[in-house]
Description:
This protein is α/β, with parallel strands linked by helices. The protein is 30% helix and 25% strand. InterPro entries: Class-I_Pyr_Nuc-Dis_Oxidored, FAD/NAD-bd_sf, FAD/NAD-binding_dom, FAD/NAD-linked_Rdtase_dimer_sf, Lipoamide_DH, Pyr_nuc-diS_OxRdtase, Pyr_nucl-diS_OxRdtase_dimer.
Amino acid sequence: xxxxxxxxxxxxxxxxxxxxxxxxxxxxxxxxxxxxxxxxxxxxxxxxxxxxxxxxxxxxxxxxxxxxxxxxxxxxxxxxxxxxxxxxxxxxxxxxxxxxxxxxxxxxxxxxxxxxxxxxxxxxxxxxxxxxxxxxxxxxxxxxxxxxxxxxxxxxxxxxxxxxxxxxxxxxxxxxxxxxxxxxxxxxxxxxxxxxxxxxxxxxxxxxxxxxxxxxxxxxxxxxxxxxxxxxxxxxxxxxxxxxxxxxxxxxxxxxxxxxxxxxxxxxxxxxxxxxxxxxxxxxxxxxxxxxxxxxxxxxxxxxxxxxxxxxxxxxxxxxxxxxxxxxxxxxxxxxxxxxxxxxxxxxxxxxxxxxxxxxxxxxxxxxxxxxxxxxxxxxxxxxxxxxxxxxxxxxxxxxxxxxxxxxxxxxxxxxxxxxxxxxxxxxxxxxxxxxxxxxxxxxxxxxxxxx
Length: 452
């Protein structure tokens, strides 16, 4: 059985490898770089530079390090490129080792069950679309020399002394963290009432306080009404509750979101939703029976780990296995400073779904590891159902908490109760101890959290 996968990003290369593991004949078509947006332009580059900036921030603020410390942007970007290249070569190796044929070029649908790539025609029994997503622009602020997107910001030859970020979601907050840590003047313009509007309100408030403490200027309930590029800067006029104001910065970064990119395959008559995302069922099958889709092209959330999960399901379904994409929650992680983990429901969402939620909260300052690593500025919240005591959501903000997302996701996915969690021994001293502390607090017997 012949499978053609279009797109070599997180969804595409994972679908291709899993399909080969199941004995299918697979060809993957990629127009640009293997690894897609995540490996080459977004997830990995941003995390590499954030890691470098965090090292600089710690050196500058540490009382036991003396002497002059400077951040060398060019060297950091060069190191980022080495990281990206290493991971991209790793993907190439995995595809080759699995026996996946890789064809370079832009694919488009051909007659019948075929795709065409630069005059070459490939026939298939099943097609997996993993064509990804693309950034959304602003008509009030078109891209130009000083108005760029989230892809370009991580490859600048020189860092800007000042930057205006349009969008206070995950990407905008990560970019604000990066440049504020290395000393740039940063402005964030967010249309909603708070930054990180889709997350727990306490998380948003904590992040706003953290960014503001480093001098980031945040304008919520605000929109860009006009942008004007000059010789050395860009001027933005924004509309805020207090009236219009002007922001001037060396660069403006548009980070207002992404949209699915089915590309020429939209001509196949695939059913899409109001945002242009390809509709799929639990097996990732589209409205065309022999076409499957996975990753960003199926709509938000635009996470690589969601793409991985959907890709495996698509390949397994094609191979005839019973496989379904039906997670209770897709974990959200923001690699800002501080980091954010959000898994499952907020209290408001739990009420809307008919639960009687209860919440327990703790400061990270109760953890020895957080205090020792100067990471105590944050908190964790656990939400559970009052009757069944099933864990419904976990929300954490603090330095280094991204590594806790996996356990938080497992708790929600497998209907763990606070009783189960309280019986689980967590190693000391680690940040993971917060799970046990929260569970014991929910049961009314906290040891390291004072009962009020």
